[in-house]
Design goal:
The chain has a single domain, classed as Gcn5-related N-acetyltransferase (GNAT) (Aminopeptidase), CATH 3.40.630. Helix 1 (13-28) packs across helix 3. It contains 5 helices and 7 strands, in the order βαααβββαβαββ. The chain is an alpha+beta fold. The chain is globular, with a radius of gyration of 16 Å.
Length: 177
């Protein structure tokens, strides 16, 4: 498969916003009320908000391309940009999404391996993420990759309080070349 990643530049915020909103809507709109979902999208997934996140030197967005097609993206956070732990020895995978048209092609697995490589290259001890407790397919995917649950935290879509599982992958115990 001809996949490649490209770090998203601040000048690409419009393209990023379009992709973020599309993939988040594909994944979660059906599970939320229109009011709560619209509130979330129009607060946290705007060009203004994503532009601020792009300017943070400890957060990086990456586009994923299959040949010439933009098929997904992910976001990693280090140090104080992490949403929870904020530990020097960890890296957070805050977002990872594949366009619905390209799902089922192992692109998500490839993306996750790129993130694991980045965390190792940055000499992090572990990689962690949050995943909605009812997203059982994603939880199983992360478990197959070696992630284990270590906690929970609330997450709001509008006024709806949801729970994310916090999962981590210990990098120091993994075999790697």
């Amino acid at each position: 498969m001809h996949l490649r990643i490209q770090q998203c530049a601040p000048a690409q915020v419009s393209l990023l916003t379009k992709l973020v909103r599309k993939t988040f809507t594909e994944a979660f709109a059906v599970h939320n009320t229109v009011e709560n979902f619209s509130s979330y999208i129009n607060t946290y997934l705007t060009e203004e908000q994503l532009g601020k996140e792009l300017e943070n030197p400890d957060s990086n967005f990456y586009f994923v391309h299959y040949r010439d097609d933009l098929v997904g993206y992910f976001k990693v956070n280090k140090r104080g940009a992490q949403t929870e732990l904020k530990k020097e020895e960890s890296m957070e995978l805050e977002r990872i999404y594949v366009d619905a048209r390209y799902q089922g092609r192992n692109i998500g697995s490839w993306m996750l391996q790129q993130v694991v490589g980045m965390a190792r290259q940055a000499e992090k001890s572990f990689l962690w993420l949050g995943v909605w407790e009812y997203n059982t397919a994603a939880i199983r995917f992360y478990e197959r990759q070696g992630f284990v649950k270590f906690g929970e935290h609330p997450y709001y879509i509008g006024t709806d309080r949801q729970i994310d599982w916090l999962m981590r992958l210990d990098l120091l115990t993994l075999d790697h070349p």
